[in-house]
Amino acid sequence: MKYLLLILFFFLPFKAKTHSDVDRLSLVHVNAEWNKSNDIKIKYVKGIKIQFTSLEAQSESFKEKVKRVPILVLYKGNKAIYNWQADLSFKLDITEEEIKNIIEKALE
After folding, report:
1. Residue 27's closest CA among 91, 86, 87, 100?
2. What percentage of the chain exceeds 90 in pLDDT?
3. CA–CA separation, 53 vs 106, rounded Å?
4. Class of domain 18-107
């Protein structure tokens, strides 16, 4: 019986989410100085610290791509895989749960 369980263990397909999977993800919040009052209040999501930066500190090519601020970008390694942008009120209306759901999909 013990050997049967061992054999099953080695042949069942599974992928555990490791700490290194989460380490590859990062969240970057970009906002303009004039819009600081609309920064998101969330600081951590699923152990990932949100990094805050100003739009003014970004390159011209990045600034040209941003239509509204604030923007929250999820990176996997060096590649942006998802972003949330503010609506016309210049507020980012998202919940921590919405961010968690996208992170879970990124870890699959």
Report:
1. 100
2. 61
3. 23
4. alpha beta
Six-digit token string for 61: 């090519």
Sign of the torsion formed by the C-alpha atoms of 5, 15, 19 and 96? negative
pLDDT digits (tens, 9 = 90+) for 66-102: 889 999 999 998 899 999 999 999 999 999 999 999 9
Classify residue 14 as left (phi > 0), alpha (psi -120 to 50) or beta.
beta
Q: Nearest CA to 51 among 62, 40, 38, 63? A: 40
55 within 8 A of 70, measured Cβ to Cβ = no
